[in-house]
C-alpha cells in the first residue's frame, strides 16, 4: 500500500506529503518560501516568521517588545518595509524594491549618511537627545570602529536595543556627557540583562546580526563565541555569492538583483566586521590587565575586511561602482579564484595575511587590501602584537644568560627581522595616506601609527605587568599597577636578579627606540585638542603605555647620570647612552610644550656639558614629564580612563635629587 494513501496534499517542490492543506502551506512557507513569505513581523525587534505559532511564542518573550510597552498583534501579517532582514542569512536576501516607498528608503539612508535628524511615525518615541547622541556616535566613534552599516542605519527600523547601545556610546562624545551619566549606566545595565536573557532563553538568537552588534557595543562601553561562527565557510557557505552571482562588467545591472546583492554584501561584511571587532577587543582589553585573551587569531577563519569605500557606499549603484574600482573587472571571470575570493589567497584569513606580511615580498593584493581598509591593517597589527607577547611569554620562562642579563632581544635575529618587515610594510601604507585631522579616516590611521610605536617598544621593553606575572581584574587597575611599577626597573629585576649588580641601568634597548618614542611623543602631545576628546579608549591606553615607557626611560637615565656625577664629579659625555636618552626625550617633550604655548622651540640647557647649567634640567626633568602626563589625562575625559590615571599620578611623590 502506498505510504501516502492518507496524505493527499503533496508538495510540488519536494517529496513531502501532508494530510491537511494548511500543513502543506506552512511547509511551503517555511521550506520554500524564502524571506518574502515570512508574513509575521515582531513589532519590537523586527524579526520575521513564516509560522504564526512560532511568531506568538517569540512575541511572548521579546524583551524589545515588552520594554517598548507595545502589545503583540499576531493576526496582522508583515508588510514590506525598507528594513533589512535581521537574520544572518547565508544566501542572498531578495527584497522587492517595487513594493517599497522610495522616499522612505532615501530618508532612512540619509539619517546616518548625512547625519540629519529624520522623524517617522514609528520613531516618535526617540528623543532629541537620543538622536543627538547617535549623531555624535557616527561623527566621532564610527570612523574608528566601522561596526554598523551607516548608510542603512535608520532609527525607525533598527531594533530598539541596538539603538540604545549606539546612543549610550554617542552620549560620551556629546557635549556635557556628565549630564546623562545616570541614564547611560542604567541603559547599559538593562541592555546587558536583556541580551543575556535573550541569549540564555534561545542560544540561536546570537545569530541575529543586530544582537551580535549590540553585544559588541555593550562590551566596548564596559565573549561570546558560538561554534562555527568564527569560520566563514561554516557560518556563511555562500558568503562570496554577492561577488560571483552576476557579471559586474555588464554596463546595466537589473536594479532588483543589484539591490539584493548589495544587501547580501552588507550582511556578510557586517558579520565579518563584528567578529574582527570581537577579536581586537578581546586582545586589547586583556592586554591592559595582563590576562590571556580568550580568542586565538588562528580560529578566526574569515577573509580580511573589504575596502572601507564599499562599506560607506550609500546606495547599490555607488557600491557597484566602487566594487569595480577596488576589485577590478577580470577577477569575476576566473572560477579558480572562487576558493580564495577575488583578492587572492593572501587575504583569506588574519593569520595568513600576517604570515604573508612578514615575508620580503608580500602579495600586492594584500597590500592593496590593507591600504583600502585601515581597520584591516589595525587587526593585523593586533595579531602581530599577540605574536610578540606569546614569544615573550616563552622567552622569560627560560633561564637568564650571564652574557645578556637585561635581555631586550626577545626574538631571534631572524624573527626580529620578520616582525620588523611586517611593521615597515604597514608603516609605509600609513605614510602614503598623508592623512590630516579633517580626514574621515584620521582617528583610525593615527591609532595605527601609535600601535606601530607600541609594537616596536614591546620588542625591546616588555610590559612590566606581563613580565612580573601580575594579573589585574580591570583595565583601569592594570594601568594603575603599570604606573606604579614604572618607578623601578622591574623587568630587569625579574629577569636577572641573581646575576647582575645592584645598580640596574643598562637601558641600551631604548636607544633603538629613541626615534619612535620621540615621534610618538610629538603626536601625543601635539594633538588638536578638539580631536583628542573623541579618541577611542584603546588609543588612549596605548598612548598612556608609550608615555609610561618614556617616563621609565627618563627615570633610569636620570639615575645613571646622577650616579656618574656622584662617582666622577662630572657629567657623562653626551654620547653616553644615558645622556642620549635623557636629552632626546626631554627635547621632544619641551618642543611639544613650546609649540602648544607658542614659545621659543628650544631650551638652552639641552645637550650642555656645563654641570651648573644642566643640573637644573636634570632635577626638574622627571617632574616636568609627570606634569605632561597629567595634562594628557585631563584631555582624555569621556571614557573615564584619563580621570582615573590622573588620580593615580597624583599619588606619586615629586621626584627629588636625593632619590
TrEMBL record:
Record's subcellular location: Nucleus
GO cellular component: chromatin; nucleus
Pfam families, per the entry: Fungal_trans, zf-C2H2
UniProt GO MF annotations: DNA-binding transcription factor activity, RNA polymerase II-specific; RNA polymerase II cis-regulatory region sequence-specific DNA binding; zinc ion binding
Predominant subcellular localization, coarse grouping: nucleus
Keywords: Metal-binding, Nucleus, Repeat, Zinc, Zinc-finger
InterPro entries (alphabetical): VerF-like, XnlR_reg_dom, Znf_C2H2_sf, Znf_C2H2_type
Gene Ontology terms: biological process: DNA-templated transcription
Domain C2H2-type: 9-37
Superkingdom, natural source: Eukaryota
Name of this chain's protein: C2H2-type domain-containing protein
Organism in which the protein naturally occurs: Aspergillus ruber (strain CBS 135680)
Amino acid at each position: 500500500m502506498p505510504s501516502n494513501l492518507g496524505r493527499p496534499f503533496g508538495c510540488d517542490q519536494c517529496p513531502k506529503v501532508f494530510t491537511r492543506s494548511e500543513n502543506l502551506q506552512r511547509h511551503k512557507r517555511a521550506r520554500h518560501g524564502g524571506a518574502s513569505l515570512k508574513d509575521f513581523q515582531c513589532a519590537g525587534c523586527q524579526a520575521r516568521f513564516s509560522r504564526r505559532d512560532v511568531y506568538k511564542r517569540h512575541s511572548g518573550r521579546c524583551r524589545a517588545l515588552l520594554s517598548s510597552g507595545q502589545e503583540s498583534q499576531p493576526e496582522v501579517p508583515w508588510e514590506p518595509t525598507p528594513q533589512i532582514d535581521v537574520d544572518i542569512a547565508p544566501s542572498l536576501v531578495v527584497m522587492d524594491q517595487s513594493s517599497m516607498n522610495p522616499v522612505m528608503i532615501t530618508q532612512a539612508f540619509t539619517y546616518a549618511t548625512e547625519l540629519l535628524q529624520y522623524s517617522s511615525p514609528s520613531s516618535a518615541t526617540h528623543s532629541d537627545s537620543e538622536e543627538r547622541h547617535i549623531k555624535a556616535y557616527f561623527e566621532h566613534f564610527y570612523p574608528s570602529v566601522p561596526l554598523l552599516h551607516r548608510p542603512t542605519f535608520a532609527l525607525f527600523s533598527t531594533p530598539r536595543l541596538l539603538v540604545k547601545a549606539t546612543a549610550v556610546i554617542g552620549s560620551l562624545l556629546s557635549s556635557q556627557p556628565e549630564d546623562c551619566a545616570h541614564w547611560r549606566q542604567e541603559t547599559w545595565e538593562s541592555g546587558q540583562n536583556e541580551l543575556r536573557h535573550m541569549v540564555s532563553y534561545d542560544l540561536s538568537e546570537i545569530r541575529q546580526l543586530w544582537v551580535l552588534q549590540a553585544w559588541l557595543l555593550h562590551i566596548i562601553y564596559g565573549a561570546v563565541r558560538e561554534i562555527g561562527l568564527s569560520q566563514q565557510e561554516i557560518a556563511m557557505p555562500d558568503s562570496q555569492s554577492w561577488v560571483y552571482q552576476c557579471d559586474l562588467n555588464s554596463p546595466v545591472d537589473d536594479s532588483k538583483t543589484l539591490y539584493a546583492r548589495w544587501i547580501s554584501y552588507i550582511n556578510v561584511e557586517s558579520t565579518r566586521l563584528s567578529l574582527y571587532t570581537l577579536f581586537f577587543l578581546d586582545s586589547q582589553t586583556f592586554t591592559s590587565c595582563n590576562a590571556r585573551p580568550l580568542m586565538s587569531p588562528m580560529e578566526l577563519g574569515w577573509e580580511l575586511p573589504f575596502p572601507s569605500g564599499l562599506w560607506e557606499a550609500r546606495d547599490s549603484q555607488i557600491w557597484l561602482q566602487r566594487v569595480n574600482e577596488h576589485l577590478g573587472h577580470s577577477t569575476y571571470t576566473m572560477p579558480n579564484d572562487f576558493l580564495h575570493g577575488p583578492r587572492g589567497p593572501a587575504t583569506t584569513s588574519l593569520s595568513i595575511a600576517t604570515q604573508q606580511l612578514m615575508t620580503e615580498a608580500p602579495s600586492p593584493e594584500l597590500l592593496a587590501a590593507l591600504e583600502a581598509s585601515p581597520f584591516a591593517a589595525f587587526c593585523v597589527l593586533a595579531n602581530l602584537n599577540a605574536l610578540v607577547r606569546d614569544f615573550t611569554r616563552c622567552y622569560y620562562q627560560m633561564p637568564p644568560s650571564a652574557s645578556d642579563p637585561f635581555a631586550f632581544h626577545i626574538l631571534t635575529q631572524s624573527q626580529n627581522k620578520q616582525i620588523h618587515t611586517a611593521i615597515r610594510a604597514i608603516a609605509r601604507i600609513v605614510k602614503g595616506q598623508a592623512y590630516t585631522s579633517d580626514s574621515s579616516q584620521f582617528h583610525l590611521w593615527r591609532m595605527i601609527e601609535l600601535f606601530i610605536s607600541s609594537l616596536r617598544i614591546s620588542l625591546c621593553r616588555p610590559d612590566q605587568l606581563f613580565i612580573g606575572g601580575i594579573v589585574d581584574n580591570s583595565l583601569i587597575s592594570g594601568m594603575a599597577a603599570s604606573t606604579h611599577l614604572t618607578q623601578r626597573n622591574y623587568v630587569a629585576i625579574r629577569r636577572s636578579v641573581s646575576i647582575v649588580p645592584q645598580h640596574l641601568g643598562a637601558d641600551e634597548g631604548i636607544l633603538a627606540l629613541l626615534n619612535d618614542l620621540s615621534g610618538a611623543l610629538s603626536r601625543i602631545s601635539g594633538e588638536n585638542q578638539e580631536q583628542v576628546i573623541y579618541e577611542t579608549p584603546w588609543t588612549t591606553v596605548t598612548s598612556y603605555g608609550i608615555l609610561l615607557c618614556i617616563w621609565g626611560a627618563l627615570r633610569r637615565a636620570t639615575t645613571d647620570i646622577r650616579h656618574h656625577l656622584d662617582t666622577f664629579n662630572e657629567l657623562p659625555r653626551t654620547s653616553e647612552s644615558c645622556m642620549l636618552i635623557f636629552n632626546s626625550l626631554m627635547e621632544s617633550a619641551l618642543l611639544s610644550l613650546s609649540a602648544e604655548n607658542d614659545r621659543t622651540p628650544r631650551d638652552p640647557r639641552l645637550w650642555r656639558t656645563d654641570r651648573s647649567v644642566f643640573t637644573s634640567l636634570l632635577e626638574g626633568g622627571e617632574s616636568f614629564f609627570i606634569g605632561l602626563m597629567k595634562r594628557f589625562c585631563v584631555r582624555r575625559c569621556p571614557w573615564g580612563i584619563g580621570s582615573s590615571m590622573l588620580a593615580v599620578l597624583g599619588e606619586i611623590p615629586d621626584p627629588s635629587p636625593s632619590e
